[in-house]
Amino acid sequence: MGMILKFTKRFSLIAILLPFMSILSIVIYFEYTSTKKEVFSVIQKHYIDSKIELFKNYADYITQNYSENLKEKMASDDEFIIRLENELSVLKDSEIKYLYILYRDDDGKFRYLIDTTKEVEQKAEYNQKFDTQLSIWDNVYKTKIFKVAYQKELQTLWITIAYPIVIDGRVDAIIGSDLTYEIHQEISNTLKPIEKVYIYVIIFIAIMLLIIYFLIFIYYKTKNKSFLDPLTKVYNRQYLDEFLQTKSLENYFLFMIDLDFFKHINDSYGHDAGDEVLVAVSHEIKLNIRTKDVFIRFGGEEFLLFVHNKNIKDPAIVGNRIRQAVENIVINAHNNQIKITLSLGVNPFPHHSKDIDEAIKIADEQLYIAKTLGRNRVEIFTENTSESKSSKRISDVQLAIDEDRIKFAFQPIYSIKSNKIDKYEMLIRMFDINGSIVTPDNFLPSVKHTQVYISLTQLLIDTALEVLIKENIELSINLDLQDILNDDIMNFLKLKFLQNKTLASRLTIEVLEHEEINNFSLMKERINILKDMGFKIALDDFGSGYANFRYLMELNLDILKIDGTIIQGISKDVPAYNIVKTIVGFAKSMNIKTVAEHVEIKEEMEVLKEIDVDYLQGYYLGKPAFDF
Hints:
CATH superfamily of the largest domain: EAL domain
Mean pLDDT: 85
CATH architecture of the largest domain: Alpha-Beta Barrel
Radius of gyration: 48 Å
Strand content: 15-25%
Helix content: 40-55%
Oligomer: single chain
Number of domains: 3
Shape: elongated
Strand order of the largest sheet: 13-14-16-17-18-19-20-21
Number of helices: 22
Low-confidence stretches: 1-7
């Protein structure tokens, strides 16, 4: 569940990150294009400004040194033309393709005064007409201000600069310069490194987006599978956290649903038939709820149903509709016609509970009432207060832990062979605020499946360890099947005993089987781990509930504790005598020790000795006490 929750949180982060990265990539792209233009513009301006400054200096030089009409002087002085051409050629570099001086004749036509072109076939002669479609030349004559024009139709030329030579307040000539397009390319090449940086960033973001999109695709493709029960195809228990993260319990009624006498179906028709019954019942329930309702297989034959309470005033109507629908179907399972009923417990206001565990406990309490009243019925929590007795018990137990009112009594277990105390069983007790003892059956069921229960179990293990260190005795403690399967409790046992097999060898773990083992392979694995740590394993209350001889064959047990309900009256009850004798004989053939519980009279003890039970425990031999 924790892993699914973490996974979901990661994708919640991705859901925020994805649009951010998409926007970021767009921003970076536009920033890149804008920056490229700006940088290009800055470099271009700097380059043009440097040329204009160069031409300005030369124009000032001509104005200062040649105050007469240039055209008239050139017409009469060839040496002057050569000298000016040489001087002007000094200004020409690889960036300037053409450099020349023009004048405008009386007809408004522009003609060459000087052309610095070296190639004879391209060089313009003095007074040769200058053909152009640009208007900058006339504008320079009118404004006496330099002009810059961009060549759009010529591929070899980039920019044309026209700079006026002003003599006596009039434009006498114009310095013309055509910059080669290669300069444009050089500036573009200068920007290549910046362009690459932006491109790399955009590529990186694009790759990240592709990865994120792929992960989201995989996540949503597998998400439903991870949240679906493989047998019934309804939501599994893992979906509960996902549901609670996105929905408010204020909008739902909480139903706890259980199949009546389902164990009988498994025992009578086999587990395959039982699976078919679960599938059929799940399907029928889904037909009788809405898409906005949430149906979860909680475990085994138990289901949670969150019914959206919009437009529903009485949850009993929904509960009875489901109950009657299932009651009316006949299930064909492995050539058997099977009918089944449901018991339902309802918590109408789960949002009033402290957490989901308490809300489920209230519904579970109502389910228990439905079963005790005959099954095939709906029971609804109707107290005015939102806190049930179950919820109060959870708070009471937590307070008892905090105030050190959880104590442990010790009941002796006698060896028939030595007629002495072999070990003690630790029994948990709670003292209420008035100092009265509360027995475990009055508080443990209400905290089952809660963190308080785990705290109690850890306190039990800690106390057992302290006693084993202090006293040279052997102890037994009780753990539920689900405790053995609980990672927190297993890890706590490893933390306390893994490095101390000597102490572990003096501790017997009595496994209580309040529910059927559904995963024998995992249970066997856990029990083997405990035995490797040095613990002895006992199966408690054998002969009642779900325990059967398969447990003795499948699980690596050391001790079998025969349930007290069979022991009581064994001295007079022939069937009880035969059952116990059979259990003891089978256990001895499996090399498993036996303990008879609830031995209350001498006659029972004598019969059990005759049957050859190994150990005895009960009030006749010793009551639980808080000291040894």
